[in-house]
Amino acid sequence: MIEFLAFVSFLFTLYIYILIASAVLSWLVAFNVVNSRNPIVATVGEFLFRVTEPLLAPIRNRLPGLGGIDISPVILILIIIFIQSVVIPNIAKALI
User: Fold this and answer.
1) Is-contact 20 81, C-beta < 8 A?
2) What is the pLDDT of residues 81-90, one digit of tens each?
3) In this structure, what DSSP letter does residue 66 have?
4) Rounded CA gap, 30 and 52, in Å?
């Protein structure tokens, strides 16, 4: 069971990297560094949107308007780090 918890922790880490990639790509598109009409950029952007949006949308709905600043990825990353550093180790201790 410990190996499964380690795998879940790895998946959380991978999801953090995907959230960061999504945020960076959105900045690059917003500042016209990359062209969103490029098929490769559009495909990567669509993938990142579909993977991250189901968890980011509920957080965005609960946050007040911050004048165009989206801090929902930061909040989600903090939640994931909390789960990795507090919840998973306590589950592992309970199983030993």
Assistant:
1) no
2) 999 999 999 9
3) -
4) 18
Output DSSP code: residue 37: T
pTM across the whole model: 0.91
Cβ-contact 72, 60 below 8 angstroms: yes
Of residues 46 and 96, more confidence is placed in 46
E strand map for the chain: none
Our separate counts of H helices and E strands in the chain read: 4, 0
Tokens of 37: 């009409």
Structural Rg of the chain based on CA atoms: 16
Structure token digits, residue 35: 């062209």
**At residue 37, what is the residue type?**
R
pLDDT in tens, 31-81: 999 999 999 999 999 999 999 999 999 999 999 888 888 899 999 999 999
- CA of residue 5 relative to chain centroid, distance: 19
- List the structure tokens of 33: 């560094």
